[in-house]
Amino acid sequence: MNVRRRRISGIAVTAATALGLGALSACSSDSSAAGNTDKFDVVASFYPMEYLAEQIGGDHVNVTTLTEPGQEPHDLELSAKQTAQMGEADAVLYLKSLQPAVDEAIAQSDVKTKIDAASLTKLEDHGNVEHDHGGEEHADEHAEEEHSEGGEHALDPHVWLDPVKYAEIAQGVAESFEKADPDHADDYRKNAEALAKKLSGLDTAFKNGLAKTDSKVFFTNHAAFGYLAERYGLTQEAINGLDPESEPSPARIKELQEEAKADGVTTVFYETLVSDKTAKTLAKDAGLKTDVLDPLEGITDKSKGEDYVGVMEANLKALETALSAK
Prior knowledge:
Elements: H1 10-22, H2 24-27, E1 40-44, H3 47-57, E2 61-65, H4 80-86, E3 91-94, H5 100-108, E4 114-116, H6 135-150, H7 163-180, H8 185-209, E5 217-220, H9 226-231, E6 235-238, H10 250-263, E7 267-270, H11 277-286, E8 289-292, H12 308-322
Parallel strand pairs: 1-2, 1-3, 3-4, 5-6, 7-8
């Protein structure tokens, strides 16, 4: 099927590019590069975009990813081959501001259907949310760090961790697929409706599960859970900022130790794709437990679930335990 000339929104193009370049052998139905199959070829930038493309596209799409399983997406660098392959895809699905290398490659790509997930919902600045207890000076310090990592507007890109906003993105992706590949529009619409039901069920589970808890504060390795916290009335306190590789100051560690006592925090969460050293050190010094809260930037053998919904359900259980849900 030759749909290469049809237009898709920025998200579909980025997804197609990301998926097609980085993990061709893992995600493709065959060994062909993006753009060389008889299906609607989509390149996705990283896992949350890949999941949307596969769920909505169903049997009609060939999805490849730029970010391989286990690879930290923030630090992704593209090869010349990957960049060249983008132009062969029918669509690229990505999330602008999360992966600068992908943003740059897509801007220079000839792919006509470029789907930017960030344009399908409203991104917010969570720069100071997780540092509310740290004083003005400390908040300013972290705002500066996140500005440099998050781009000019320092908007938080981790929007997929809010099932409601993720559903908004999914709807936009479906509409882009329908326009780019109208022959299968009905199926894309039906698949999107089925996905919407899954995400609505997930939202309900989080609302009910976290409605009554002993504490509303949770500690994380990096500030990926601002949207989730805002959606369900929680407060995220991050050891690091939006950049998972940044190192916290001694003052920040001391501050978190004091807050753990004040707010009844029991657990320091770490994640699967970055080092857990800082989180475990803080937990040991403060007498806290540790557990995994997965930002779902990639699925690996260590993931507590086989897909987005499974891992989010595991995240809910971890939060219910840590916050002593009733």
